[in-house]
Amino acid sequence: MAQYDLLLRNGLVVLPDEIKQADIAVKDGKIMKIAANLQDTGKQELDADGSYIFPGMIDIHVHFNEPGNENWEGFETGSKMIAAGGGTTFFDMPLNGIPSTVTKQALLQKSKIGIQKSLVDFGLWGGLVPGHVEDLKEMADSGVIGFKAFLSDSGNPEFERADDTTLLNGMKEIAALGKVLALHSESAAITDWLKVEKEKQGARTADDYLETRPVLAEAEAVGHAIAFAKLTGCPLHFVHISSEAAIRKIEAAKQEGMDITAETCPHYLLFSHEDLTVKGAVAKCAPPLRKPEEQQKLIQLLREGKFDMIASDHSPCPYELKDPAMHNLFEAWGGISGGQFTLLSLIELAVKYDIPFTQVAKWTAENPANRFKLAEKGRIQEGKDADFAIVSLKEAYTISKDNFFAKHKESLYIGHTFPCKISMTIRRGNILYENGKIREKAERGKWLTPQDNTAVKAHTAV
After folding, report:
1. pLDDT(446) > 70
2. CA 338, CA 62: separation in Å to the nearest integer?
């Protein structure tokens, strides 16, 4: 009789501090043993010889837009895309659903949809917006991973940016709740003023768009938020940081002992403003892709370990909102569709710049799990969830519409060739994705909540 449900044989296992060839034994969704040449047996045994076994990627920043805007993406297609990229967990942002996730009711409505449709495990962000500070506690008690606010226009009139009073009151409450506030940090005053100036001139090129969202706007907003966090004691997480100036401010605050983490996104590391100039709206995002010299600074910061984690900021839309026929870049939707490519991108950068794969695992799994209190995730370690991304470096992988699993197939990544390929994704011992195909009948994912949230444990047990 087989001792285990699954045995992975001979893989190059990416552990927290080393890579070693070993077997992994899995039972009831958990890692039971990690050792070379296990003599045990499994109901299913897979030979991963020559492939790297990474911990399943945790993407803390995606926009799946459900309920209400499922035609943009949705939990079903979005989670399949995450799985195809080696992901076993994602956190969905609160702003683009209808309603936005700014109340307990909206949170529970979204969680039910995710439980029904998501192929991978997921967490949910709540929103900090004007008029809903009093809703933060109920959302925290009901299971949000953390809260998200915008310091500039979100692009969604239903999810207003947080004015200073909302920000201070919200930070005070979030600190008391023991949660983290994630911030889109661009100065509304600067970006709005510059946009009006360009509109007066009838300016609408890629260069004009970049000039309306300068590094100065990001750095000013980061400094503003840090000042408020000093006053309130609120833990912060800065999303999609795109400039050296912003990271230097974050680093200085960390040196003072502040509770702050920061992410950047693969598109800021692999692409530049030149791609926006050539490819148009498909490469539009906010903050924008930076000029090549700033891109190189970000890569150097990555190599120096100045980013805590990397997330996709997958922000898709129907094609007509990116249509080049619009002829006005300012009117196009600002978001990069790329949630499938985070782990692949980091491996490409690691190979090119001699970054240890153990560091890639920290950026994509361990650090997110630690920051957001997912004790069963993040590492290949006995007792943890059996979440794995099996990666081959023996063949290149070129992105096409045929192998991109998002609902809409337009992406900045189309045509890009990675020096590696996701061969298989396993979530809690279940194979979700294998050699280009989704296991459609795989067990659905779970709604994950921070480990210290006893109220949610009681709710989800019902």
Report:
1. yes
2. 9
Domain boundaries, the chain: 56-371
Q: Where are the alpha helices (DSSP H) in 354-408?
A: 357-361, 367-371
Q: Average pLDDT of the chain?
A: 94
For the stretch 62-95, pLDDT in tens is 999 999 999 999 999 999 999 999 999 999 999 9
Q: What value does the mean pLDDT take over residues 400-404?
A: 97
Given the structure tokens 């650090």, which residue do they identify?
Answer: 367
Query: Would you list the DSSP string of 42-108?
Result: EEEEEE-TT-EEEEPEEEEEE---TTT-TTT--HHHHHHHHHHTTEEEEEE-SSSSSS-S-SHHHHH
- Give the C-alpha distances (Å, rounded to integers) separating 360 from 53, 178, 227, 298, 415: 12, 28, 31, 16, 23
Torsion, CA 410, CA 411, CA 415, CA 418, rounded to 10: -140
Q: How far is CA 221 from CA 225, 240, 351, in A?
A: 6, 13, 34
In 3-state terms, what secondary structure has residue 450? Answer: coil
Q: How far is Cα 393 from Cα 391, in angstroms, rounded to an integer? A: 7
> Phi first, then psi: what are they for 122, rounded to 5°?
-150, 155
The amino acid at 36? A
Residue 255 and residue 221 in contact, taking contact as beta carbons nearer than 8 Å: no
Kindly tell me if the per-residue pLDDT of 452 is higher than 80: no
Question: What is d(CA 55, CA 323) in angstroms, rounded to the nearest whole number?
Answer: 37
Domain boundaries 56-371, CATH class: alpha beta
Q: Give, in order, the Cα–Cα distances in Å from 353 to each of 52, 218, 283, 399, 425.
A: 18, 27, 24, 22, 25
Q: Given pLDDT bands bounded at 50, 70 and 90, which one contains residue 202?
A: confident
Burial 19-55 (b: 16+ CB within 10 A, else e): beebbbbbbebbbbbbeeebeeebeeebebeebbbbb
Is the model more confident about 329 or about 302?
302
Query: 156 falls in which pLDDT band (50, 70, 90)?
Result: confident
Cβ–Cβ < 8 Å for 334, 284: yes
